[in-house]
Amino acid sequence: MIKIIKNGEVYAPNYLGKKDILIAGDKIGFIKENITVPRKFVDIDIIDASGNYIVPGFIDSHVHITGGGGEGSFRTRTPEIQLTDITKGGVTTVIGVLGTDGTTRSMENLIAKARGLEEEGITTYVYTGSYQVPVRTLTGSIQDDIILIDKIIGVGEVAMSDHRSSQPTVEDFAKLASEARVGGILSGKAGVVNIHVGDGERKIDFIENIVENTEIPITQFLPTHMNRNQSLFQRSISYAKKGGIVDFTTSTNKKFLEEGEVKCSNALRILLEHGVKSNNITFSSDGQGSLPDFDEHGRFIGIGIGKVTSLYSEVRDAIINENVPIDKALSVITANPADILKLPMKGYIQKGRDADIVLLNKENLKIESVIAKGKIMISEGKPIIKGTFE
């Protein structure tokens, strides 16, 4: 099926102006001022994007696709994600992670769920491992996992500065990062180390120690939850100015924000005002992960669940409430993760790339349509394609 999107304004995520886009199969075929619709010798689906911004499909680089949690015992294990939990948020590419529980949640299950979601219509990748070090892998080696398993693009989320971590040493982290880097180099993948940063006083000391005392570059690390408290957020500014990548988590609740968590839309504006390069900033949702609450003694007192739909909500708030330019706001969930994670077919509206496209209402910036690999998943705000068991 050939599709032509007409009459929309394109943010690719850089602004291209009013353009027509031809989609052939699952790829972007042409981007032109005006594409004339030929006489029908083949079926052509015309999508009128009048009143819309046309933007790249969103990339969520941290989603617990098999569920997460369990910090409040077995009954608090969050359920697996469903396809429309993802697509309703404009997300067309997800990176699956495990988390606290590397025992009842396995790498085999993570890979199987990723392949299932891909069969249902979106693009998926995963990280090998969970909070614990030594990392639990498929092959017995981080490096081998990255080289040999197509879906695996890095390692994580490994916990640091958190009472739930396995308390690894700096040396443990350095060896882990080295394996991931070499695996990435040999396979053409990013080989990033996705790090869960907790509330601990050490914050990201280990990362900066490794960067200062080894040959591993700062860009090998992707620390997430960097907005979880004011102190860590302030540290994120200096870290990003050194060239580090910082990832802010969009799933939150009123209590966390009242206790000092920095809202992502606000965090983006502040970093840009401090002169941080916009391409060093990403958002991820922590979707379907648990949002556990602990008291001052580390005792579990409550739990929530992350939502993939929070990803774009924070980008929209950054544009509307924080006056962040549209292209810079969109980049944190499109071009930036695509570049950092070495996903060459994603993150941009560009000839030859995957036809992952979102149509936004120009007046209120709400999601109207979502196209993943050339297929319409959401139309007029409603799911067209649902998951197998939805």
Automatic annotation (TrEMBL):
Q: What class of enzyme is it?
A: hydrolase
Q: Record's Gene Ontology CC terms?
A: cytoplasm
Binding positions (Zn(2+) 2): H196, H225
| InterPro entries listed in its UniProt record | Amidohydro-rel, Metal-dep_hydrolase_composite, Metal_Hydrolase, Metallo-dep_Hydrolases_sf, Pept_M38_dipep
Summarize where substrate binds, as residue positions: G69, G70, E71, T100, Y131, R164, R228, S290
What does the UniProt PTM comment say about this protein? Carboxylation allows a single lysine to coordinate two zinc ions.
Chain sites annotated for binding Zn(2+) 1: H62, H64, D286
* Record keywords: Hydrolase, Metal-binding, Metalloprotease, Protease, Zinc
List this protein's GO terms for biological process: proteolysis
Q: Mainly localized where?
A: cytoplasm
What the record notes about the co-factor is:
Binds 2 Zn(2+) ions per subunit.
Q: Which GO terms describe its molecular function?
A: beta-aspartyl-peptidase activity; hydrolase activity, acting on carbon-nitrogen (but not peptide) bonds; metal ion binding; metallopeptidase activity
Q: What is its EC number?
A: 3.4.19.-
Instruction: List required co-factors.
Output: Zn(2+)
Amidohydrolase-related domain boundaries: 53-377
- Domain of life assignment: Bacteria
- Write down the Gene3D superfamilies for this protein, in alphabetical order: Metal-dependent hydrolases (3.20.20.140), Urease, subunit C, domain 1 (2.30.40.10)
Q: Which residues are the active-site ones?
A: D286
Task: Show the Pfam families listed in the entry.
Answer: Amidohydro_1
The entry's localization annotation reads: Cytoplasm
- Function recorded in the entry: Catalyzes the hydrolytic cleavage of a subset of L-isoaspartyl (L-beta-aspartyl) dipeptides. Used to degrade proteins damaged by L-isoaspartyl residues formation.
Return the similarity comment: Belongs to the peptidase M38 family.
The protein's name: Isoaspartyl dipeptidase
**Organism, scientific name:** Anaerosalibacter massiliensis
* Gene that specifies this protein: iadA
